[in-house]
Automatic annotation (TrEMBL):
GO CC terms in record: plasma membrane
Name of the protein in its database record: Cysteine-rich domain-containing protein
UniProt cross-references to InterPro entries, sorted A to Z: Cys_rich_dom (IPR004017), HdrC_iron-sulfur_subunit (IPR051460), NAD(P)-bd_dom_sf (IPR036291)
Coiled coil regions in record: none
Length: 264
């Protein structure tokens, strides 16, 4: 969902009002990130193509995802690809390219990128070199890295990019959801206070207690997070504080939206 939100943000800078009717190629999109992003984009009426080296698998996956996307969503297509020639055929007329494959695996070469026409947005979630798209860098944001082709790197799909409204816009599009802000939010928001899984101490526990209290004070049923550390440490805190455990649930943003899509 963060990929969809960030794509939409940059797309608007290039004259796209939304993703409706846009062709999105989800390279290596058979994993959880690719599947959820494809589902959301399909719900937004984008034409989504998922690629994989395994033809039968990707076609069956696309068929199942289309069913899960539900009524009104655009059909998701599965295409096999394992060479520059195959990838070129698939991506040349795309509006948006998402590289969401295995970390450290290059999918699209520089040679192929130089053959693409302009007016494209490319997103790569890979933080382990070689990146999914040759020439990509994790800190790119709306960066023209090939003529007329603009890049979004992995580091800009997250909090450090100062994007606060995009995930809220996604949640606000769900008609039966009431979005409630905590007292400290956006740039003033507190997190779990843990910079790595091994550094949860008495100081971070105090930060967690403060944030959990803010969440309880809203009366909300869910605390939505987009960081795996926040998800783990907030849940850990609630498990330790037994009287708070049933106050609300801490849920990952992508999982939350994904479950709603599957239930639709």
């Amino acid at each position: 969902s963060a990929i969809v939100a960030k794509t939409l943000e940059v797309a608007r800078k290039h004259g796209f009002s939304d993703l409706s009717g846009k062709k999105i190629i989800c390279l290596g999109g058979t994993g959880p990130v690719g599947q959820i992003s494809a589902l959301i984009a399909s719900k937004l009426n984008a034409k989504v193509v998922i690629t994989s080296r395994r033809e039968q698998f990707v076609k069956e996956l696309a068929k199942n995802l289309t069913k899960k996307a539900g009524r009104g969503a655009i059909k998701i297509v599965g295409e096999p690809a394992n060479s520059d020639e195959q990838y070129l055929k698939i991506v040349k007329d795309a509006d948006i390219i998402w590289s969401v494959g295995k970390a450290g695996v290059q999918i699209i070469s520089k040679k192929l990128m130089n053959q693409l026409p302009p007016k494209k947005i490319v997103v790569d979630i890979n933080l382990v070199p070689p990146y999914g798209i040759e020439g990509m860098k994790p800190d790119y944001y709306n960066t023209e890295f090939y003529p007329g082709i603009y890049a979004i790197g992995a580091l800009n799909i997250g909090r450090l990019s100062n994007v606060y409204d995009a995930p809220r816009e996604l949640l606000s599009k769900i008609p039966f959801i009431e979005l409630i802000e905590m007292e400290s939010n956006k740039k003033d928001a507190l997190c779990c206070g843990v910079s790595a899984y091994i550094s949860c101490n008495e100081y971070s526990k105090e930060i967690q207690a403060t944030r959990i209290k803010e969440a309880i004070d809203t009366g909300a049923e869910y605390l939505i997070v987009s960081c795996p550390k926040c998800l783990a440490h907030f849940n850990c805190y609630l498990n330790e504080e037994k009287e708070l455990k049933n106050k609300f649930k801490v849920v990952d943003l992508t999982s939350f939206i994904g479950k709603l899509l599957f239930l639709n």
